[in-house]
């Protein structure tokens, strides 16, 4: 599917990435923590602020699916 976008390389799984051992709920929690606790400049914060509700909704969807059990 990503091949339809010629400027974007397809994503590959590499075993030594930090997130390979993380469960989806943990990744979501770490993402939200980083988004809310990092000091952002004004322009970047506007982008982050728009994405926080999406990340929180995804975290709620994962929690509702029961992936954490």
What brief labels describe this structure?
single chain; mainly alpha; 55% helix; flat
Please explain how this structure is put together.
By secondary structure, the chain is mainly α. The protein has one domain. About 55% of the residues lie in helices and about 0% in strands. It has helices at about 25-35, 40-65. It is flat, with a radius of gyration of 15 Å. The model has no long low-confidence stretch (mean pLDDT about 75).
How far do the termini sit from each other?
Answer: 31 Å
Assembly state (oligomeric)? single chain
Order of helical and strand elements = HH
* Low-pLDDT windows of residues: none
Brief sketch in words of this structure:
This protein is mainly alpha-helical and 69 residues long.
What is the secondary structure topology, with strand pairs?
Blueprint: H1 24-37, H2 42-65
